[in-house]
Amino acid sequence: MVEIHTLKKITKKSSRRLGQGYGSARAKTSGRGTKGQKARTKIKLSFEGGALPLIKRLPMLRGKGRNKSIKKAQIVINISDLNALPAKTVVDAETLVKYNIISRIIMEKKLGIKILGDGSLDKSLTVKLPVSKGARQKIEASGGSVS
Fold first, then answer.
1. Is 63 within the bounds of a domain?
2. What is the CATH number of the domain that holds 141?
3. How far is CA 104 from CA 78, 107, 109, in A?
4. Which of 33, 84, 86, 100 shows a CA-CA span of 20 to 30 A to 138?
5. DSSP code of 83?
Protein backbone atom coordinates (compact mmCIF):
# COMPACT_ATOMS: atom_id res chain seq x y z
CA MET A 1 0.00 0.00 0.00
CA VAL A 2 1.30 3.45 -0.95
CA GLU A 3 1.10 6.16 1.69
CA ILE A 4 0.60 9.81 0.85
CA HIS A 5 3.82 11.05 2.49
CA THR A 6 5.88 8.67 0.33
CA LEU A 7 4.52 9.93 -2.99
CA LYS A 8 6.76 11.95 -5.26
CA LYS A 9 6.03 15.69 -5.12
CA ILE A 10 4.80 17.28 -8.32
CA THR A 11 5.44 21.01 -8.42
CA LYS A 12 5.11 21.73 -12.13
CA LYS A 13 2.01 23.76 -12.97
CA SER A 14 0.62 23.30 -16.46
CA SER A 15 0.03 26.42 -18.54
CA ARG A 16 -3.50 27.74 -19.05
CA ARG A 17 -5.14 26.69 -22.29
CA LEU A 18 -6.84 29.83 -23.47
CA GLY A 19 -9.91 29.95 -25.70
CA GLN A 20 -10.97 26.35 -25.07
CA GLY A 21 -14.65 26.98 -24.34
CA TYR A 22 -16.73 27.81 -21.26
CA GLY A 23 -15.59 24.79 -19.27
CA SER A 24 -12.02 26.10 -19.20
CA ALA A 25 -13.03 29.31 -17.36
CA ARG A 26 -11.10 31.13 -20.10
CA ALA A 27 -13.69 31.26 -22.86
CA LYS A 28 -14.57 33.86 -25.49
CA THR A 29 -12.15 36.69 -24.65
CA SER A 30 -9.56 34.34 -23.08
CA GLY A 31 -8.93 36.53 -20.05
CA ARG A 32 -8.21 39.68 -22.06
CA GLY A 33 -11.32 41.56 -20.99
CA THR A 34 -13.49 43.22 -23.59
CA LYS A 35 -12.33 45.33 -26.50
CA GLY A 36 -9.51 47.83 -26.54
CA GLN A 37 -5.90 47.82 -27.61
CA LYS A 38 -4.70 45.28 -25.02
CA ALA A 39 -7.43 42.82 -26.01
CA ARG A 40 -6.41 42.87 -29.67
CA THR A 41 -2.62 43.05 -29.76
CA LYS A 42 0.50 43.02 -27.64
CA ILE A 43 1.71 46.47 -26.62
CA LYS A 44 5.39 47.39 -26.36
CA LEU A 45 6.71 47.61 -22.82
CA SER A 46 7.82 51.17 -23.57
CA PHE A 47 4.35 52.29 -24.72
CA GLU A 48 3.01 55.09 -22.51
CA GLY A 49 -0.58 55.47 -23.69
CA GLY A 50 0.19 57.81 -26.56
CA ALA A 51 2.21 60.29 -24.44
CA LEU A 52 5.69 61.27 -25.58
CA PRO A 53 7.91 58.33 -24.53
CA LEU A 54 10.47 58.82 -21.78
CA ILE A 55 13.37 58.12 -24.12
CA LYS A 56 12.27 61.00 -26.36
CA ARG A 57 11.79 63.35 -23.40
CA LEU A 58 15.38 62.96 -22.23
CA PRO A 59 18.07 65.26 -23.68
CA MET A 60 20.36 63.88 -26.36
CA LEU A 61 23.82 62.80 -25.24
CA ARG A 62 26.26 65.04 -27.04
CA GLY A 63 29.84 66.17 -26.87
CA LYS A 64 33.14 64.74 -25.71
CA GLY A 65 33.18 61.34 -24.04
CA ARG A 66 29.88 60.04 -25.36
CA ASN A 67 31.46 56.88 -26.77
CA LYS A 68 33.51 55.83 -23.76
CA SER A 69 32.17 52.28 -23.84
CA ILE A 70 33.47 51.82 -27.40
CA LYS A 71 37.05 52.85 -26.64
CA LYS A 72 39.57 50.14 -25.80
CA ALA A 73 41.29 50.51 -22.45
CA GLN A 74 45.08 50.57 -22.13
CA ILE A 75 46.98 47.92 -20.20
CA VAL A 76 48.76 49.63 -17.31
CA ILE A 77 52.03 48.20 -15.97
CA ASN A 78 53.94 49.72 -13.07
CA ILE A 79 57.73 50.10 -12.83
CA SER A 80 57.77 47.67 -9.90
CA ASP A 81 56.47 44.89 -12.22
CA LEU A 82 59.55 45.27 -14.45
CA ASN A 83 61.85 44.07 -11.64
CA ALA A 84 60.93 40.51 -12.71
CA LEU A 85 62.95 41.02 -15.94
CA PRO A 86 66.71 40.38 -16.12
CA ALA A 87 69.05 43.38 -16.36
CA LYS A 88 69.71 45.05 -19.74
CA THR A 89 66.56 43.58 -21.33
CA VAL A 90 64.75 45.30 -24.19
CA VAL A 91 61.19 45.78 -22.89
CA ASP A 92 58.46 45.41 -25.51
CA ALA A 93 55.12 43.56 -25.73
CA GLU A 94 56.74 40.21 -26.63
CA THR A 95 59.12 40.40 -23.65
CA LEU A 96 56.24 41.12 -21.26
CA VAL A 97 54.38 38.05 -22.57
CA LYS A 98 57.53 35.89 -22.35
CA TYR A 99 58.02 36.72 -18.65
CA ASN A 100 54.25 36.41 -17.86
CA ILE A 101 53.74 40.06 -16.95
CA ILE A 102 50.82 40.24 -19.42
CA SER A 103 48.96 37.37 -21.10
CA ARG A 104 49.16 36.60 -24.80
CA ILE A 105 45.35 36.93 -25.11
CA ILE A 106 45.48 40.54 -23.90
CA MET A 107 48.33 41.34 -26.28
CA GLU A 108 46.48 39.84 -29.27
CA LYS A 109 43.55 42.17 -28.65
CA LYS A 110 46.00 44.93 -29.59
CA LEU A 111 45.26 47.11 -26.59
CA GLY A 112 47.78 49.82 -25.80
CA ILE A 113 50.42 49.16 -23.15
CA LYS A 114 51.71 51.99 -20.94
CA ILE A 115 54.26 51.90 -18.15
CA LEU A 116 53.55 54.04 -15.07
CA GLY A 117 55.97 55.13 -12.37
CA ASP A 118 54.57 53.37 -9.27
CA GLY A 119 57.29 51.60 -7.29
CA SER A 120 61.02 51.51 -7.87
CA LEU A 121 63.30 49.94 -10.49
CA ASP A 122 66.54 48.16 -9.51
CA LYS A 123 67.82 47.20 -12.99
CA SER A 124 68.79 49.05 -16.16
CA LEU A 125 66.33 48.30 -18.97
CA THR A 126 65.74 49.56 -22.50
CA VAL A 127 62.02 50.34 -22.80
CA LYS A 128 60.32 50.52 -26.21
CA LEU A 129 56.81 51.22 -24.94
CA PRO A 130 54.95 54.44 -24.02
CA VAL A 131 55.88 55.61 -20.50
CA SER A 132 54.71 58.32 -18.12
CA LYS A 133 57.01 61.18 -17.04
CA GLY A 134 57.60 59.62 -13.61
CA ALA A 135 58.38 56.24 -15.14
CA ARG A 136 60.85 57.82 -17.59
CA GLN A 137 62.71 59.52 -14.74
CA LYS A 138 62.96 56.29 -12.73
CA ILE A 139 64.10 54.22 -15.75
CA GLU A 140 66.82 56.75 -16.63
CA ALA A 141 67.87 57.09 -12.95
CA SER A 142 68.46 53.31 -12.78
CA GLY A 143 70.75 53.46 -15.83
CA GLY A 144 68.21 52.43 -18.46
CA SER A 145 66.84 54.21 -21.49
CA VAL A 146 63.47 54.92 -23.15
CA SER A 147 63.19 54.87 -26.92
1. no
2. 3.100.10.10
3. 18, 5, 9
4. 100
5. G
